[in-house]
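Hi everyone,

Forwarding the result from last night's run.
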Amino acid sequence: MKNTVDILRDKMQLVARNDQQNLSVVGPVKLPIKQGDFEATFQWYSWLTVNATDSKEDVLQSLAKSNLAFGQQSSVLVYGDFANADDALIRMHSICHTGDIFGSQRCDCGYQLHESMKMIVEHGCGAIFYLADHEGRGIGLFSKSLAYLLQEEGHDTVEANHALGFEDDTRSYEDAIKVLEVLRQKPVTLITNNPKKLAALKEHGLLAAGNVPLWGGLTDTNRFYLETKVKKSGHILEKETLIV
């Protein structure tokens, strides 16, 4: 029987990020999912930023002292023969504590996360990148709570971020693209309503054939949020009934 270090080392990859840091990619882990009537088993990977000089053994030995629970790490759910299938769907999903966990109706994030999983299973192959440093389009959970308070006073999402001194969108996808390149060399189709996002990701190296939209989850409480996505963030409206 292999010892603990040997078992884990075989499931780790060190991916060059820059001169001072690497990404330690771990997986796959079998992850059975059940949401209501929907059931599927995904392959789960996670990654962590480490020093470029760290070996796999160094990473493992440092875990107990790293206080990782006080930060957040990103991960990816993979379904099907992701490396070899001719066509694969992916979603770059920004973490939304309120929408994904609590089911908040201020946004459509939880809906998009769960529907993307169903779309990928129905398609037969794909991956969902769950990006942990993207809360509030990159401003963090605490700042997002302040932005919500401003939105309750009439600001839209863009105006609220600007009022707090942030850009509209500060998210980076470079690490996710590097991990994607480890898992698949062929083009992918991005699940997004925003062609600008697809173009931006292509500029950073995403090998993508195009995008498919995902509209839905409309409520009275997130209508203004979705309207702002269309009017200010470049999202293309495909359902005429969304904006009334």
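Confidence is low (pLDDT under 50) at residues 240-244.

Cheers,
N.
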